[in-house]
Amino acid sequence: MRRDLTPRTLALIVAAILAAGPFAPQWTVFLLTVALAKGLVVLGLMILLRCGLVSFGQALYYCIGAYAAGLLGLRYEVSGVFTLMLAGMLASGATAFVLGFLLARYRSIFFGLLSLAISMILYGLLVKTEALGSSDGFNLLPSTLAGFRPADAWVRYMVLAVAVVVAFVAALLVNRYLKTPLGRLAPAIKDNEIRVEYMGASARHAIHVKYVIAAALAGLGGALAATTVGHIDPEMAYWTTSGEFIFITILAGTGNVIAPFLGALIFGIIQSVAFDISPNTWQMVLGSSLLVVIVFLPNGLWSLFSRGKAS
Amino acid sequence: MAAILDARGLCKNFGAVTAASDINAAIERDSVVGLIGTNGAGKTTFINMITGYLKPDRGRIHYEGRDITSLAPRDITRLGICRSFQIPQLYASLTAFENMMAGIGVVLRNAGLGGFFSRGEPLVPGHNLPAEEVAARILERFGLADYRDKNAQVLPGGVRKLLDIALTMVAKPKILLLDEPTSGVSSEEKFVIMEMIMKAVRAEGATVLFVEHDMEVVSRFAERVLAFYDGRIIADAPPAEALENAEVKRFVVGGELHRLDEAQARPRA
Predict the structure, then answer these.
(1) Do A200 and B107 touch (CB under 8 A)?
(2) ipTM score here?
(3) Could B90 and A184 be called an inter-chain contact, meaning their C-beta atoms sit closer than 8 Å?
(4) Are residues B230 and B214 in the same domain?
(5) Same domain for B221 and B151?
(6) Residue A25, Cβ neighbours under 10 Å: how many?
(7) Which residues contact B68 (CB under 8 A, 6 or more apart)?
(8) Does A78 touch chain B if contact means CB atoms closer than 8 Å?
(9) What is the mean pLDDT of chain A?
């Protein structure tokens, strides 16, 4: 059996980010932290995509995660960054557990559009809820780590460090999950559910589990984004947010658990550079770069790394 | 010998069409049973009812004394009744080896092995070997070792058929239902392929029911024949006796000759 290099590679990347963080300019720290938050959501989408499901509504869980973290601060003045992330993850995972009974029955476009519809319902509700700031949303309390609040210059680094560690643990767990029998079943479910059933497994049950995992990761990402940006609004549940996550998933590819984070980072860089160069037509640059990836790297950016291994 | 599978009074209608009408059959452990009959006679409906794909309108099915009539296909599979398909049901984008590994994954999962918290490589229950070794062995037994790393969707028809049957072996079935294992295979190859299948399957000690249109194959491999016509079993006897039955000759063998004539009359492309 070939040795899995992923955990070691991940550990090296984490160490490098933690070491370089204090010396990096603030904007790169921010860019990286947001990329890690989005990467967590995309990691979940990757699990779903491996069994052939595209969720056009993953922003639902991103938003629930963010609002769960925000509300904990607003109502109970909780500011511990780990507590907020745990709350985001649990709120999204629990919602997905319930909705999963419905969604795990659907496939292809029906699954995609149903998830989109549910995320837009949440968007509609939040926009109309004045207690939560309607379309303006609300600000979060400054984050603390185990009751300690660092000096202003170090807050961003602290959130980055927490984000890196959380993303590292999540990636390792998902990497292990993908190697379990249930994780490995994904391509089989994508190819032939009849056979899966006649081999003695329930495709619906497997999809339900994957759906909850994906949602929990999105909730974690949402809570992390909320603490990083310090502000949340209903836009987090809007369909364009979901679109962005799918964009990154396709850009990254589903080959490895590192791919979502790499994809999210490159997405962030392209977006910032494009916005800088042409503030009015930056979407065009983004669209063109996706087109280039689809044409030349149909399996996403990760195929650049896996190609050498295959030959 | 004790019956491992017992079907009593099975009836199934699809609108005005009767697919099964009072089917009674007790299958003995370790036997090899051939199911014959023209298209639409009720052979596949019988297999579909045993494997839980169709629920009979009336009647019960018992397996090792347990009523399995209302169980889902996956639960029936878990009990040890596996099937192959007339049109191979494979994981098209995976290689032959990966197909086997996906099947073994399900077996491990159902046995609660190889999960998130388990350590080390588990042994596949029934085989007592690591997963990769089980996959390689079964592929070899079915003469598929050369196709190991080829994608299922590019494999030739006969090979797909064999892989479809090989996939059922990962779960160590106690009863194996083969739906037309040699369809789409040339008549010269039929015996070779059937020989290989039976050798591989019997080595695992499974009871076999197979649907077949070629009466020579049936006489050669079946110990007992169930002849279907119009949703009924019109003969249940050893092959020599069943194939001489007047009704069978008229409705089944005659029908098969008719099929053969049709096939020969068809202009070659």
Answers:
(1) yes
(2) 0.84
(3) no
(4) yes
(5) no
(6) 8
(7) B52, B61, B62, B75, B76, B79, B81
(8) no
(9) 88
